[in-house]
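Lab meeting notes turned into a lecture example. A postdoc, R.K., suggested we walk through two folding results consecutively so the class can see how the record format repeats. The first protein's sequence and structure tokens come next.
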Amino acid sequence: MRNISQLAASLVLLATQANITVNSNATAAADPSSTVSGVREVKLNTNTSQLVEIVGPKQPNYETEVLAPLHAAQAAAAEKARAEAAAAAAQAAKAAKLKAAVRYVAAPAVAVAGSHADWMRAAGIAESEFGYVDYIISHESGWGVTKYNYSGSGAYGIGQALPASKMAPYGADYMTNPVTQLRWATAYAYARFGSWAGAYNHWIAVHSW
């Protein structure tokens, strides 16, 4: 009778601030995940001398539940940033290498006479790229060595350089020599698109380069 009275009194005092669970096994642990933050849990033990046991809410393990996930996220972000920086550096190095590979080297003047293939060959363009070059040049200028852009933009020559003076580093005869103009066009194609094939794919997509 005394135990029942004690239990009733305890329940009255704690009812407004506790979650009540009944445990028939004195050694069973309360599920800490079931407690609400800031609320105490009351265990009613029916087979022990301690009828009422107040259990506090679980405190998080700061090392494993807070710091460990934070450090893992920081490490992943740092690794991603390093990978992106390495990829950007590799791309920049590749572009610089390609640009240097087609840098103009002074050569004896060549005659303007000859076929388009002769001009491309003299400009150092690989025969595997002739198709790409021919398509772009045919659509840009129709292989017009002294052609100005019809819209009045000032673009000039086989590859429609804008302005024409962009071709000057590739030969003093850039206004009249198709080979000189093709040397500039090759440098432009590699610097901007990575290859003549890349320039061709871009032209197909947007109809300009």
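The second example is placed directly after the first for contrast:
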Amino acid sequence: MESNSKIYVAGHRGLVGSAIYKRLQEKGYSNIVFRTHKELDLTNSQAVAEFFETEKPEYVFLAAAKVGGIMANTTYRAQFIFENLQIQNNIIHQAYVNGAKKLLFLGSSCVYPKSAIQPIKEEYLLTDVLEYTNEPYAIAKIAGMKMCESYNLQYGTNFISVMPTNLFGPNDNFHLENSHVLPALLRKFHLCKLLENNDFKGIFEDLGYAADDDLFSENKQNALIYLDKHGIRIDKDDKVSLSIWGSGTPLREFLWSEDMADACIFIMETLDFKDLVNNEGRAEVRNTHINIGWGKEISIKDLALLIKDIVGFEGDIHFDITKPDGTLRKLLDVSRLENLGWTPSVELSDGIKRMYQIYKG
């Protein structure tokens, strides 16, 4: 990419897209185009076609997607598969039609089988069944990867897919029902700390409740009911505790989103699809995607304890084993990317501290 190349970042307001946009600017790329959801509905085929025909981006970062945690994936199964398929089909096809030089498609580590051998290598894709809770989302992402691969093989495009691990960072989603585990825990522990300090005005501000004195008692009760719904409770001894979904035993890998953005730009600057093809004497071309991760993992229990310590909450935590755990382990093998010369820089604890400061404003 040249400094004045026209670059389209789809999903520039999201966790990954905003990090990519910021990193591109830091590296001196000056011709970046983007649209908000209100300006361009990426599920609308005609609108996306008109945008590409008008703008003719040379490079495309496809970071737009409908995402969420276990609860969101379980509740909105139809939306997760439909909207993600629509978004990626429209953008990938129009990038081909309008002659984009290169496209980078953001997948997800949930595309790998539930029982995949750890750490997960790229070639383990489609070797076994998926985790049920996020199956619709995973199938959509697999379709996007195969679409890129297939367009490369049939049309000679230069579309690359990357599989990021669990990401966190600036512009993350902190919604108590629809967010991923790390930002959800960070916000819940923050609310626990406020409740522990009897800081209801702080709780009202976080939840968007009015702090007017005339409504204080009513909103205090409403806040306690809402917090209890999300596992934040006061016991009979007036001690605050947090109940967390699952057993706490699943292991997860996390990567700071700005590290992820740096890896994406590194790949766009240095690699082409042909560099990722390894037939090994076979006619088939497959598994040309690249894992992006840290290569380290932590249990949900230890993650909770780490966040608890960073926030400064002194109460108890409990694990609700009646709720699903999701995939028990999901560590990516990142040797392919390391061999290409890229490694991350932000440690998990440092990233969480940065994120908490951002959340508190």
